[in-house]
Here is the input.
Amino acid sequence: MPPSSQAPAGLARSASVLAVVACAGLLALVLWVAGRPLSTPDLWFHLKAGEAYFNQGLWPAHDPMLFTGLSTGPVQHEWLFGVFAHLGEGALGFHGLRLLHVAMVLGVVVLVAHLARKAAGSWTGAAAGVAAFLLLAWPRLVQFRPDLWTIAAVCAVYLLLLAPSAGPTRRALLLALGLHLLWSNAHSLAAIGVVLTASTLLGVAFERGILEQTERPPEAMRARAAARMRALALALPLLLVVGLIHPRGVDQLLTFFISTSDTAIWEIHDEWSPFHPLSLSANGGRVSRLGFLVADGIMLGFAALAVVRLRALRGRVTVEALERFDPPAFITAAAACGAMLISVRFLWMGLLPLLYLLTALRGLRAGRPAALLPASIASALALFAWNAGGLAAYASDVPRGAADYLGTPVNRGRFAHEAAQFLLDVEARGRLFNPYELGAYYGYHLAPGLRTFIDSRTEHYTAEVFAEWRSITFRGRHADGRDFLQLLDGRQVDFFLGVGPPGYGYSVPYTLASLDGQRGWVRVFRNAGQVLYLRDVPRNRDNLERIARHYARQGVPFDHHAGLDVGALLERNLPWALQQRVVPAGFRSVRERAAAGERPARVEALLQLADMRFVAGDYVGAARDAQRAMGLGARGVKPAEIAVASMQRLGDLQGAQRFLHTLSREHGDQPWAQRFLARFRR
Here is the structure.
């Protein structure tokens, strides 16, 4: 072989190897996040509901977790996924569910790689295609939800039904129908399969119309198109019929339309928000910067390639130009682009226009085998390097050490587990008001003894329930004029769960201080990021007695009327407080430094101590230590802020006013004091 031809061939081989390595690196990162300790909030209601459906049947008399659920006890549209998850957990445990999640992601990637390889005609093109798909789909892949089944099913339906140029064989059709039966019972998005089949059928009809305009079209090509059209025309109604084989019948196909009438499904504006291709900021942080660019690049590239291929069909139509344009693949890919624009949840459907784009690589490589590969591998490496930070940041709850990663089955910190464990230990009974993101986890562990107010199954309760939850969470007034306390009593809530930073480090509305200082509510549990209050009414006498006995066994000071005194707890049973993450491990040493030593060291320790006490809910101790620090010469906004905020949380507004008056008299000429006082006057 001449040297001039050896160099491009060698470059092509090197680029191919590097492309596969880059794709493998990105895949490893996705699998690392997917296999982390269980942290998908929705998984827990799938497990609980799956248990109920497996043991009690598919028509429950009432919701297994919610006390606000619809009276009809609706069948969950993902019931089969719930049963699958329940059986998996029973057979394999939580660690097994992690492995099962990784296996499902790998299965999806294998299907995508196969489709990309067929489209591009090379493993280099396939690697680039898989990398682009991962950049779009990883937010769905790293969550253990029925979307995993939908993504795999779309790939399989495309392979079995939509891609064969002569239409699906009888065997492929039967496999696709069986798959669709499972799909429709595992996820209501099985309607995607029907839409894509209809789109491909429309494309075949369009292709046959153009084919009749070509000069002397090959008889074999006409026969293939006719056979494909007959097969898809048969498959489409069969898919619709199979989709009706579900406990909910036709309602399953119409889930997200009929639910708008009386449920809260459209009150959640997260992953159902439309994708804005012209502005990253308009997507509200729901799309990563790189995912935004990849999605835009795929749609723009698809549109440009379609224009080029359509131009080749003008005038005298040739068979070669028609085959390159491929109307069925084009219309199916265009339908997928429409889904991407409808919701960021469907960005992974960029796979279909991506496959259409990859077919262009086959023709380019035939003429210039090394021309595209260096650019391809450079892009793949750049995308991998860029996305590594974004995906790793998303997975901030992944344990850092290998031992913790392998040995931790569930990310319990994500779900405020200490409060859940407390409710389990005291055998709490009644009704719980909870953050939206934690409802499924608490329902899984505590129902039916203690039922939750809300979880992310928004089609299982009315929009009115969600409106009340929002008014209570943000301490506002409801449309009928009731305040958040009246709303809690209206729903006969027994326990109130509040969370907030810094002890709870996830993005949820701050409710940690919602009931601080409110009469009629007894604080029964508190740590740095979680709090539980019990409604002090006769129906909760048994709950209160069980809590008191539990604390007596633990050696924790507790009063039936005043509740849990965190200050007394820190003095009398610090080991228990450390175990429950009430205060950090360094609390004891800081307290010792605050009690002895030189003045500068004592002042610094007192400030740290005041901050720790405030975060833990010991507002009396926080105000005391902050004022002691100021008495020893501490100046600045921080000690004053802790003192005033602590008094406010205690409901001691007169004490706060006296402190501000003293601060103004003694330090009113200091700039920091002037800024602080001005803020409170506002």
Q: What stands out?
A: Residues 366-371 have pLDDT under 50 and may be disordered. The two ends are 83 Å apart (CA to CA). The chain has three domains: 3-60+74-253+271-394, 412-579, 587-681.
